[in-house]
Hints:
The structure holds two protein chains of two kinds. Chain A has helices at about 20-30, 35-40, 45-60, 65-85, 90-105, 120-125, 135-170, 185-190, 200-215, 220-245, 250-270, 280-290, 300-305, 315-320, 335-345; strands spanning about 15, 390. By secondary structure, chain A is mostly helical.
Amino acid sequence: VNIPRKEKDFQGMLEYKKEDEPKLVKNLILELKPRGVAVNLIPGLPAYILFMCVRHADYLNDDQKVRSLLTSTINSIKKVLKKRGDDFETVSFWLSNTCRFLHCLKQYSGEEGFMKHNTSRQNEHCLTNFDLAEYRQVLSDLAIQIYQQLVRVLENILQPMIVSGMLEHETIQGMSGVKPTGLRKRTSSIADEGAYTLDSILQQLGSFHSVMCQHGMDPELIKQVVKQMFYIVGAITLNNLLLRKDMCSWSKGMQIRYNVSQLEEWLRDKNLVNSGAKETLEPLIQAAQLLQVKKKTDEDAEAICSMCNALTTAQIVKVLFLYTPVNEFEERVSVSFIRTIQVRLRDRKDSPQLLMDAKHTFPVTFPFNPSSLALETIQIPTSLGLGFISRV
Amino acid sequence: MEEPPVREEEEEEEERARPEVGPEGALSKSPAQLTTEDVYDISYVMGRELMALGSSPQVTQLQFKIVRVLEMLEALVTEGSLEAEELRLERDSLRKELQALRTGDPP
């Protein structure tokens, strides 16, 4: 049944001398660049190599070697993230590889639940001597920690763009009632120099997404990151709306709805419609609608109360209160209208919360994602500088 | 008065050009203009296509040969640009020397 091959049949393990362990983690973790020929062509390669080293130590029944390798692996990843933890690329790279390493430890654990998708050859590669379930727990905690760090990094990058790109910058020309002049485009682009636009946000989202894809991050994990990014955009935009009078007008509502539609378009484009990202924008979408609907009769009040189910009473009342008419055809919202809304919403048991918690992080999960890669075919690319380990 | 608009246009052009040089764009570049970043982009694109072919031993063998070829390309791109720079400096200094000898006082 074996495929005839000239070269030796390997078992998909890697052997190194105990004294070379520091050199191994130095070249494979501490000093490995997240962008390079080998890691780009085979995403997750460092994780596979590490697991193949674990396999050989397990095969030797050398518990001391297994323990020592796993400990240095975890410590080295922590060290890299301490040193370059503000670099999105580095954090994304090690999140992807930590997850892949964790998946390998499950896929080849020998536990039936994790072997459903294995080929028979892959089943032969399961660990035979040690149960590493406790280490899996440690690695899973590490992955959660790296994920939270990733969210902080992307939040720091996105934050300064959001108010400017979502609220202040005018995507639709001449909406605010300011008459556009003939030289509008030129003058506005001079005025916008250095200021972020919706395009800056979309470009930034695109570059985050492409880095994660290049690192071979689990699609399910990418979805969670994107949902978290959209939540940050939505929460910061809505909070600013609730704090600034000049943001509560009919035209800003129009503007926000247009910007949100562009964000949704981006999700469709990247095939992320089922990520739950769009849903996180719901409060913002409803606030934008609230800026646009009629606010006069009892029917209007009823419509508002049934429409704004993702906003708290405090948020609805605040928007109505801040609402500023843009032209002579509109009127200020009357106090009695706001009273009507308050009365109608009295029975609603919602929180008195006005501002959204922009720092909220959705709990992350790492669903098991086995790989079809055949360990016995993995070779060690020269550029990794691991000439001292050998295939077994 | 005329300068600012011109500068602005240049900036706009640069920005427009950037998205095109995405992962796929690297393959349409002239070899002389290749950077190591392009080589990494090519790696990613080819890796994705190889992975789509499945994980039969033949495919993986090819995959690691391609890794080697791309490592060589990376080395050539890096060394090539360094060498060219060195030669350029050397040529310029020789040219200057020649100029000095021609115009300078005769021996």
